Amino acid sequence: MPPLPVSERRLVRALQRGDAAAFDELVRLHQHKVFGLCVRLLGDRAEAEDVAQEVFLSVFLSIRNFRGESLLSTWLYRVTRNHCLNRLKFLQRRAFARSQPLADENASGAAGSAASSLPRPDQLAEGRQMEALLERAIAELSDEHREVVVLRDLENLSYEEIEVITGLAEGTVKSRLHRARLELARRLAPYL
Amino acid sequence: MEHERVSERLSAFADGTLDPAERPAVEDHLGQCAECRRDMEALRRTLALMRQLPRPAAPAHFAQALRRRARKGALARQRLLRWIRIMVPWEAALVVLLVAVGGLCVFQLLTVEVTPVAAPAIEVADEAGLQAVAEAAWQEKAEVWLQGRRVPPGSRLMMGGAPATFEIRLDGAAWTRLRARLEKLGHALPPPPAAPGPFVIAVTPRPAGGPVRDGGD
User: Fold this and answer.
1) How is chain B split into domains, by residue range?
2) Domains in chain A, ordered, with CATH?
3) Quick check: B57 and A23 CB within 8 A?
4) Residue B37 and residue B40: Cα distance in Å, rounded?
């Protein structure tokens, strides 16, 4: 792993001293990354906002444990991913029904497979609706497929970073990614 | 390269992470296999689409809401600490701790197990003899126990109308004094054991027609 950039080292030291301004800076720099990952992994904006706040609060309390063995952003991704997995387990136990399907406010319910619930090709316009299709197809992947696709293809992280964040071996990341992409391509094939 | 192996490598080929040594074989196969070409095209389009997908932005109020929540959490922690300090001052907590430890020590001292008697039991011929031994024990300030209960001085030692087996619990000094007193009653008790007391001596009615088996026989 590359050494921490100087600016990041300063920020981490200030956070470890309990500096409130450093906390504001951390939020300013990383709020969109953390929130974005939460939305992608949870598929629900309200849950994502709540979990993203929890992530920052837990980071503020546990920043002393950060030893600089990875980039701060990688560590943040790992904390975020773990919080999201915990929340998913909690929600699945409560038989959670998504309150606001991601980027698809006009679409009907998310139940059923993507192929059966997606609109027909002749109903589709370019742009926003294609995004909505893709968002829904990603949301309907299994948790383990969704996380590798999100980290690699949406967050543009390297395989090495994904291994650190998920704790998975390189071979597992690659095979899961391959299966997840094929599944997405299969679901989107009628519209591509 | 055969179809299955190429199919597994299409994803890496599409995002440019395939080992360069494997690229020619995959390209060669793609030139011949329509199914793999179709999959490859679908993967490329899917990847291109994903790269264009905008990241959801945090709501404008996110940082402010987070600060509010952090303040609320800190305030709640402060209140809890203040409440603990008011309700449970450290001095009180220390006193409670000392009392608990002291109580535990006393409890353990009071519940020390009694050392079993080293000498054989004393056998007596009848109820009068049994009662006489108990009286001797009470006079020497020893304890008399019957069926796991301490018997107060002067009690009659009967169980179901028959003389009952009982125990005398005493220390070494009481043993020596009791030994002298029992000698006068015709019972031989050995000298007290060298180990520190307390000790237990069992006193039993002699079976009808049985031989005399006192502690000192």
Assistant:
1) 3-52, 62-110, 122-205
2) 1-100 (1.10.1740.10), 103-192 (1.10.10.10)
3) no
4) 5
